[in-house]
Specification:
Blueprint lengths: L5 E6 L4 H18 L12 E6 L2 E10 L2 E12 L2 E10 L8 E10 L15 H8 L2 E2 L2 E2 L5 E3 L4 H9 L7 E4 L3 H7 L8 E5 L1 H10 L10 E4 L16 E2 L8 H18 L4 H4 L18 H70 L38 H7 L6 E3 L3 H5 L7 H23 L7 H6 L13 E2 L4 H5 L1 H6 L1 E3 L9 E3 L3 E3 L8 E7 L7 E8 L4 H5 L1
Helix pairs in contact: 1-2
Amino acid sequence: MDTSTYRMVVTSGLDHLGSCAVADERLRGWLGEAGYDTGAAADGPGRVRLAPGAWLDADAEADRTGAYTRWRLRESGPEGLRQTTLLVRARPGAATPRVCLTAEQLPAAPGARPGWSEAPTLVGPLLAGLAARDGRVAVTAGPRPLGPADLDRLLAELRDPERRLPIVLLATAPPAAEALTRHLPGLAVCYLLTPEARAAVNQALAHHQVPSGGARSYLPGVEPDQAADGFRHPAMPRPGLGEDLERVGRLLARLPRRLAARAPLPAELATVPALHGRPQPPAVASRAELERLREENALLNGLLEEAGHEESARRGEIGELRQELRAQEEHAFELSVELAEQAEELRRTSAQLRDLRRGPADPHQADPHQARPAPCAHPAPYADPAPHPAHGNPGGFAALLERIAELSELRFTGSRRITVELDAQVLGPHWAATAWDALLALQDYARARREGAPVRDFLHWCRETPAGGHRFPPGKVVRDESPQTAGRRSWRRQRTFPVPVAVDPSGAAFMGAHLRIGAGNSKAPRLHFLDDSPHGGRIYLGYLGPHLANTLSAGI
């Protein structure tokens, strides 16, 4: 579902006072271009009337939680109330302030759908004056050229854990790039690649290439080495001859716009109280009591009307979100049923294939006329495998935890409560079956290591699984966390789990290696483990639960 709201959140390159001064200057210039009397916009908090149906509210606050300055322009028209809000919010310590610009069209009638809000023309001057940034990335209103010499900087920006905005790489002619990015100011960082830069980018990002004549949007949390990660970052092919670039540009802006409007606000912005317009104190204190009461009554009626607009808009948003949620839940349920059926069929086929690879239990029963199979490139590490646990799916995570005892090479040290809570999810049974497949593969791998098989690690095992061994998809195996995730103290602490003191004297160890049990980055589970089999030990399962915090969950 498209969102009608425009929202920009960036970090200023100036301090709080400097940011407020630039914001005030750019706002007055923008109001003047719109034909409003900027002289009426007096300094200080309160409400002033700029023109019939146009009001400017301002407020500011400084307390223990920080300081903020805010302006809100409300313009009434036949189509409803257009509201533009500019907020500069200080952050703790030496961090530069956040700046948020929101534009929305509140409907004229209750229940009406809000109108589409274009990016205000204020965006460009504001970004330039603030030297705006998103993490380490400079944010500008239009696309910037990028050559081969900028490749290292681009790769660092793509991996930046502080980045919230998408990065859009375009491989088009400059006029087309300007048209395609017209709706993206403040919503994305855009680069126009030279042909040489595109070749260098596609070589460095083999799984995330930019199509010739097209564009690609890179969301926060890019994993260049993961082929499956390429599906997260949508590519747009070259527009057709004569195709309306305005329409294509709106399509390109759809995802960044939705992410900007739906992503949770940074904590310092979310704690700013609601703005309630109040008139500025009159210059002359002596007024008739009746006139004062009339003004207060008009003010209260205006506030009541504002509240009605706000309530109508929020009710509409809630209704649309509920419809979208219901459709997604129904779609997820249908997919879960289809996925469970296909996964069960795949497991049956895999079990039959393993049995065929093992061959007859008694070699004398083999057909003497049957051709001898070609020798395996990676011979089975154990000629007489130990009996495998029952192949049947556990049916859920509670049952899975009970059956881990069947796997002698594995030891679960994590939180049983977190794991069992996955049973409440729609895809819980499928995830449990996938996790059981992963445990069977880990069990076979660890036993092979103990018996001296030439296997480097679990990923090597999955890529070259010997005959009769359980296999797990190599694309779901991650040897370690990215430097951005492992280097952040809070995220590293989340991934540190109990182990025996014989393994680590502290009784806990960082477990960056993990398996993707489900797709996605919200509730989709991950299995974090520590492989001590190279030292003759077991594999310790420290965590089986929802995806832990990383660059994706922190970014959008």
